[in-house]
Design brief:
This protein is α/β, with parallel strands linked by helices. A hairpin with a 2-residue loop joins strand 5 and strand 6.
Length: about 450
């Protein structure tokens, strides 16, 4: 079978429909994933899909492939990715979500859980190899049954969240799949909800469902200004990431969300390790330490952080892209709706939610910046940078994922993306002057190995 290598990403499979992702490819994936699942003793696999127009055809083909290798399919229908993770934590241990996440509307793909773990890296390449060589093990006999997990999922969230007072909020689902479940769950925990774009529509007619981009939060900001809600929440296309906007229109980025969550979780898990990725603010680690926790900086990638959390028993993890992982009181997977509920639980304890958010430690920082490269070039460039970096003390160099250099007043990061052929850059300073100095120094280093480097603000 002819399979483009480009669709097999570090953490999932993703491509353009029907050019690189289509029904034949989905059926082959079902056969390959089902074969690996059976080898690990798995008899059943849950399958869900987001609101994309290509979802029904791709999930039908995927389920057909799973049944051909003897897997019983649990069809959970049109759900958020976290609801698929919930199914793979409650009704079975393996699952596949058909989702294009926050990508443009002509994309679709697959996020996978095998025997309780998110698969990534070499395991995704093993699937590709089996699909290409067609070495799956046909057995037949798989059956299909439909299960609605929404009621149990909602009950599990609502039963574990306690608001100290009712809250008025704005919720923008961007016509993504979260619109079918999140507003009702937020009402059930005690919120008065102003809904924006809850109708699931794979054409995304209002704005793109990616809350990490400021232009996609304009409608939330306008609704907060026009009404009496005190905070705004926004979800991405498949519901695993959360955007937060204050009454005065400030975006609370995920590394600052993590400060709030860490303080809360560490009250009940004193001494716990909180994991965050290399893109996060320098202000986060001291906040975790001050709350009695152990900060652990780790590689970027939702699957990598989930695996690390499992390995060391961490109660909380998060990354700058917006994936927040609660193990304390939850299952350890990333879930925008659940993170939103936990946020509101914390904020409801104060009469002024916005004062709490705006008081979180902050810095001056760039958005995520990208430098386009040739295929295969980013990792080679990072290796060159790591080999020749020579910043004098007090600079601290971290090389777990690219090159991060921390000074007492800020940091610079240059890393290779695991999903597209770009370098990812981020700079932060405690003052505008520090930010400018760090950015200048890091870009001079980059141009010593790539003189033609041109920065663009990251497109998600």
């Amino acid at each position: 079978m002819q399979l483009p290598a480009s669709i097999f990403k570090a953490y999932d499979i993703r491509g353009v429909v029907p050019d690189t992702v289509n029904e034949a490819m989905a059926e082959a994936l079902g056969r390959a994933f089902g074969t690996l699942a059976r080898r690990e003793g798995q008899a059943s696999v849950a399958v869900g899909r987001d609101g994309r127009l290509s979802g029904p055809a791709l999930s039908t083909a995927l389920m057909r492939g799973l049944m051909q290798v003897g897997i019983d399919v649990i069809d959970i229908g049109r759900v958020t990715t976290p609801m698929l993770y919930f199914a793979a934590s409650t009704v079975c241990a393996s699952g596949i979500q058909v989702t294009g996440s926050h990508n443009p509307k002509d994309y679709n793909g697959f996020k996978m859980v095998l025997a309780g773990r998110a698969i990534y890296g070499d395991e995704i390449q093993a699937l590709r190899d089996m699909m290409a060589r067609e070495t799956w093990e046909l057995a037949g006999g798989g059956r299909i049954r439909s299960v609605d997990v929404l009621a149990d999922y909602q009950a599990r969230i609502v039963g574990g969240i306690q608001l100290s007072r009712p809250m008025k909020i704005v919720v923008d689902s961007g016509n993504g799949i979260a619109g079918a479940s999140a507003p009702a769950i937020l009402r059930a925990i005690g919120c008065e909800v102003t809904e924006l774009f809850s109708e699931v529509d794979g054409n995304f007619p209002n704005h793109h469902p990616d809350p990490s981009k400021p232009e996609n939060l304009r409608d939330v900001v306008a609704a907060l200004q026009a009404g009496d809600a005190e905070i705004g929440l926004a979800f991405d296309g498949d519901g695993d990431r959360l955007g937060i906007v204050t009454k005065d229109g400030n975006t609370i980025y995920p590394d600052r969300q993590m400060m709030l969550f860490a303080r809360d979780v560490l009250k009940r898990v004193p001494g716990g390790t909180v994991i965050f990725d290399v893109k996060c603010s320098q202000r986060l680690a001291p906040t975790i330490e001050a709350a009695g926790g152990v900060p652990l900086m780790f590689k970027t990638g939702h699957s990598l952080i989930k695996a690390k959390m499992k390995e060391i028993g961490a109660p909380l993890g998060g990354e700058m892209s917006g994936h927040i992982f609660f193990k304390e009181r939850w299952y350890g997977f990333d879930d925008g709706t659940y993170a939103g509920c936990r946020l509101l639980e914390i904020l409801s304890q104060s009469p002024d939610a916005n004062a709490v958010l705006n008081a979180l430690p902050s810095s001056y920082c760039t958005p995520e910046l990208n430098v386009a490269c040739a295929e295969g070039e980013p990792h080679a460039l990072v290796n060159q940078l790591v080999a020749q970096v020579d910043f004098a003390a007090p600079a601290q160099v971290t090389t777990i994922d690219g090159l991060r250099v921390d000074w007492p007043d800020g940091f610079g990061l240059i890393r290779a993306s695991n999903t597209t052929p770009v370098l990812v850059l981020r700079f932060e300073g405690h003052t505008p002057e520090a930010l400018q100095r760090i950015q200048t120094d890091m870009l001079a280093l980059l141009r010593s190995v790539k003189p033609d480097a041109v920065m663009d603000e990251a497109a998600h």
